[in-house]
Amino acid sequence: MPRSSFxxxxxxxxxxxxxxxxxxxxxxxxxxxxxxxxxxxxxxxxGSNPTQFRVSISKNIWNCFSKCKQGxxxxxxxxxxxxxxxxxxxxxxxxxxxxxxxAVKANSEKDEERPSEAPRGKTESAPKPAAKHPxxxxxxxxxxKFRLEKLEREHPYLTKERGLTLETIVDFxxxxxxxxxxxxxxxxxxxxxxxxxxxxxxxxxxxxAEDTPKYKLPPGFSKSLELFNIDRAIKEPGDTPLIIVxxxxxxMMLHQHGCKKVVALMGSTMSAAQEELIRKHTxxxxxxxxMLDEDEAGQAGREDIASRISRFCFVKVYQFTxxxxxxxxxxxxxxxALLNP
Length: 341
Ligand SMILES: [Zn+2]
What we know:
Layout: H1 9-15, H2 18-24, E1 32-34, E2 37-40, E3 53-56, E4 61-64, E5 70-73, H3 74-82, H4 86-96, H5 108-111, H6 156-161, H7 166-172, E6 175-177, E7 185-191, E8 197-203, E9 215-216, H8 230-233, E10 242-245, H9 248-256, E11 262-264, H10 272-280, E12 287-290, H11 296-309, E13 314-317, H12 332-339
Parallel strand pairs: 10-11, 10-12, 12-13
Antiparallel strand pairs: 1-2, 2-3, 3-4, 4-5, 6-7, 7-8, 8-9
Bound molecules: zinc ion.
Zinc ion binds next to loops.
């Protein structure tokens, strides 16, 4: 959680919408949408007239025509609701909506380049927190209260460079994000075992410049607590081997090839929490195939992972024939031979 007092208010304002904020307060049901505006009773002064408070969705601003007789932007709204300063409201927004602290850090040069229009995200009702979620060094990742919308599904990075079909892309909910904290990146939703989205990972489409990270994760999110695609892998038959890979795209590609019981570590090591998740969803009869990339990190990681998993189920380490190979390089026929020896 960002504790710095330097917050770029513009960036925070651009990253969240009034719709998301109303959803956060559980007020969405009280508002009616008509064209570009939402109207409802004013939550600030607690009125009851259903037209006294109006939100312009595209401008991302609000107005109370009744008692308050004023309006403002998203941060003004949170500040009024919480009875705090704009600065405190921005810090709350960063926390509630898992904004990237780097992206909202005050930087006067970048200020003017920020998009003034916020992404319009239709929000879904907040899922219940996962009670039995593994915890490592603190709290479990909370389910997100918003969804990134208007993602570009048929982005060439996904279709041409990664060879994903539209079906796979839609199935995993990935897509190119034009606005907000994942702007310019491929947004990949990460679900917890209960199927709630707990974060979006942002993959730079292609090779990023030196100072740009390939992947961006939201602040406060612990990827070591999750296994990508676990929510769906655990619904596959118990006698099908579970394949463990490193990355998102390896998991998506194996899934596309018909190996749907696949999870990704989101790295080449397995955390204690990830081990516990695998243990919880396997039996002593289960088979696990560890399929890490054929590089130094993968080779080092797979030995450790295999020895730890072998304590509670059957493990096979998959070794590629060529150095540098990754699960994405396998064909459906190789995989079917692997799963049905
Ligand atoms: Zn009011």
